[in-house]
């Protein structure tokens, strides 16, 4: 079973986003005093679609930038951001399908929505962070001044660290890449782990989640996440994962995220 490629993830996110928006518009277009979180979700998914459309050109090699700019967008940041978007979209679509009828939202559906609203808001917070990460990547690639680039790099690093800090699932998925390749821990994960060192109870809980994780256990039962040419293998052997970037890996769209079809409720949107 092959994992999801970066290129397929981008296309699937666009398709999945359209499905989520269509479901949510049955709420906002037909219900008086529709939940504000439904409107917020439509806006977030729409904004992510716009950011993805711009970023896609760079990931697919259709848009050019300088080598120095591309080197500042690390593969780690791309993988964390897209992985977080894919898994969050799966969760959001599952909830909206439970709550939204094809044509309207009745009283019972409103109760369901209220029941899940805290979960929905948590997903939207994660998506907002991933959206901002993509915008920072675009700023790095397109900004006119070095100061803008430097500010965007700092903000991107902080956003990715925060995403890993807040999600056991993301940390486990990133650790599965390290286990697959024998890399040292990635830069963002190293910082997050240092933040946890003084919280022994939480760290023990995370280690248990790691050992129990299907994602981590799947590493030894599949092809490598990264099927590369011999020249790329040689380059990667000399680098840690966090040193790889948009500028150092050709055909980045064919590289894989730590996601498999069984992980997603909406896997039909993606080509595995």
UniProtKB/TrEMBL annotation:
<dbReference type="Pfam" id="PF17111">
    <property type="entry name" value="PigL_N"/>
</dbReference>
<feature type="domain" description="Azaphilone pigments biosynthesis cluster protein L N-terminal">
    <location>
        <begin position="1"/>
        <end position="165"/>
    </location>
</feature>
<protein>
    <recommendedName>
        <fullName>Azaphilone pigments biosynthesis cluster protein L N-terminal domain-containing protein</fullName>
    </recommendedName>
</protein>
<dbReference type="InterPro" id="IPR031348">
    <property type="entry name" value="PigL_N"/>
</dbReference>
